[in-house]
Structure formats: structure tokens, C-alpha cells
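I would like you to sit down with the record closing this message with an eye to the fold:
=====
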Amino acid sequence: MERKMLFAASTWSHIQNFHLPYLRHFQGLGWRVHAACGDAPASAPYTERVLEVPFTKSMGSPRNFRAAALLRELIREEGYELISVHTSLAAFFTRLALLGMERRPLVVNTVHGYLFDGQTPLPKRRLLLAAEQWMAPVTDLVLTMNRWDLQTAQRYRLGANVVHIPGIGVDFAGFSRAASGSRERLREALGIPQGAFVLLYAAEFSKRKSQEVLIRAMRRLPEQAVLVLTGDGALCEQCRQMARQFGLDRRVLFPGYVRNMPEWCGMADAAVSGSRSEGLPFHIMEAMYAGLPIVASDVKGTSDLLSDHEAGLLYPYGDDAACAAQIQRLMDSDSLRRQLGARAREHVEQYSLERVLPVVLGLYDGLLLEQTVRQRR
């Protein structure tokens, strides 16, 4: 019997950056793997078909409801056995397409961080929670990555089965292949003076990632501190303007989107994060593997990684003074930097792709097996 599955996410880059090992696995087992996303490439690895759907970040946009209609037509046409949904918006509208179907595929919702935690304004929090509750009847398995999301999904019964996973797995192989000498080369290319203490934050420029908190913190730090903000996004230019306004042009750097994170981690003295909310952040886990000491906002996901293992310094979200104080602690203490870096490196192995992939795939297998048993009764 032919087996088909669909991966759905807001963008192809999300699937490409985080889920290709899963597509490869299912294709290797003989599944016909399709993908649906908002920026479909002409061709994509490990997929037979990629459908471009008009997802847009505005939840109430007619484009998203048109995307749901296209997905409903696709699902009926292809007869998928399994659908794997990712990113909050795509997960909602893909499942919306399934409501009312007499026979629907199994659905796995991988939660990369619910966006309705305690810091979300109450009206928005209620709306987003209600949306997840509405989709619960067509969600067979919920995979969560941090304690808050797990407890929330269990409390509100946001799927038939809710399970905690240690992320989706980070491929650390590239860190062992990082080119020697890249530290000096990158610093020279960026114009970073000798003796600088380099802070790295690798993230999309968005309101949720809160780069502006780190830029404000830089005003409180000595000239020796240099902040490197890699990535691109809607708020990049706004952050550039803020840095110029504060006279930080030479101390806050914007190299744009970069690919070789092992080399960039090797260039830094510490990693930082200003994020308002996370699932289980890749940039933190990569920094941990590189042995960098970390200063980050005390939010779900990040605190699971750092606080549980005493592997980094946390500060209240949005508090640039507290952020600067924690960074200053690192700058003042070689022993603290070594201790935190070593502890982070020791504990991050449990989140590696080679350990996590079998765990997650085992949950998919269990769900498919349960369905087979039910059908035979």
C-alpha cells in the first residue's frame, strides 16, 4: 500500500533548517513525502512535491484562510496517512483544513513554542489558546520541548496525546569541522579590535527576539564589549538606527544572515539572547556545544536549557540593566566563563540529533502502530 505524508510549516527555510533529517528518514522508508509552505522552492531535497501556500504572519488575513482551502483540497486529493505540522500559524491553518473531514490523516503538532505565555497580552493570549483548543480534536499527538508548553498542553488537553521531547535534535557535526584560524579572520573582517570581548546573538530580527534589549544593555558596558547580531528580518534596520542613535556603530555589528555557525561561535567570547519566548532555542544549544558562556533572558525554553543545568546566567526579560550586569560578571571573571562554558558543553549532548531523532521517530511509529491496531479490530 502506498504511504503518503505531508510536512507543513510557514516557510521552507524552517523545514530545511530543522526537519530535513525527518524527511530523509520517511523517504528512506518508502513514504511519498510532500511539503507545504509559504515560500516553496522549485525543487527540494527528500520531497516528491512542494506546494506553495499563501501563509502570512497576520493571523486574520484572508490569505491564510485561502491557504487552508488549498490545503483541504490537497489533502483530499492526495489521501495522506500522516501530517506533521510546524510553526504556530501553519499548524493552525493546516489543521483548520481538516475540521469536518469524515476520514482524516493522523496529525502530529510539533510545538516550537506556544505564543500565549504569561507575558502575552491577555486578549491575544486567550485568542491563541482558544485557537489551539479548537484544533485539539484534529490533533493526535502534541510534541512539546519545554516544561511550560508541556504543562499547558496537558492542562488544556490540546491533543489526544501530549509528550515532551528534548527538542528536535541539533546536528553538531559541523562544530568538529570548524576551520582553524576563523576566530582571527572573522574578527579582522568585522573590524573588531584586539582585546575586545565579543558577544554573539544569532537570531531573526523580530519583536520576539528583542535585539533592542541587548543594544540598550551595551550602553552600560565598557568599550571592550562588542555585540555581533547575525541574521536578518523586519526589524534589522530599526536596530541599526537604534545602535547609531546610541553612538554604538562600532560596537554593535550587523553582518547579516550567516551560515557557518561553528565558525561564528568560535569567534565569540560569549553568547547572549534577549528573546521573549522560545521553544528550545537552537542558537543557545549551538553556543553550549561550542563551550561558550551564555547570558540570556529568563524565559521558557531558555531556562530549561540553562537554569536546570546551571549552565548560564539569566536575567528578567526586557531588563537591560540586569542583562548588562550579568554580562559584566562574565567579563570580570575568567573562572566563571570557563565553569559555565564547560558545564554547558557537558549537558548539551542530550539534545544532539543522533540522540533525539530516534526518540521522535519512535513516537511517530507508535502513533502509526496504534492506528493500525485500531483498524484491525
User: Anything to note?
Assistant: The longest helix spans residues 353-376. The radius of gyration is 22 Å. The mean pLDDT is 93.
